[in-house]
Write a structure and sequence with these properties.
Layout: H1 4-10, H2 14-27, H3 47-55, E1 60-62, H4 71-78, E2 83-85, H5 87-95
């Protein structure tokens, strides 16, 4: 349930994971995204991810998925005020 590989890597207890999940749930907003036009041409299954960020008025889309990091997808997101960042890039932005 809690991704054993990540739990071992990060050395998190079940309690710490549950606290983090509770925090994410409290801070989250559920949105109903509607895919208006294709954006991720190389992987249309990723379009709902992009439109969820748009509908939710996200500041950033954090991903390592190369389809979502394609320049055309990043440009689509940028026109809507969304930065497409890796986890490392997002962490750098949050710390600054």
């Amino acid at each position: 349930m809690y991704y054993p590989r990540l739990r071992e890597l990060l050395r998190l207890t079940d309690h710490e994971i549950r606290e983090h999940l509770d925090l994410v749930q409290r801070l989250s907003e559920v949105v109903e995204a509607v895919v208006a036009e294709p954006v991720v041409l190389s992987d249309p299954d990723d379009d709902p991810v992009v439109y969820t960020a748009v509908t939710g008025r996200a500041d950033a889309l954090c991903t390592l998925d190369q389809h979502l990091r394609h320049p055309s997808v990043a440009a689509f997101c940028a026109r809507r005020g969304i930065s497409v960042l890796t986890d490392v890039e997002l962490r750098r932005v949050l710390r600054s």
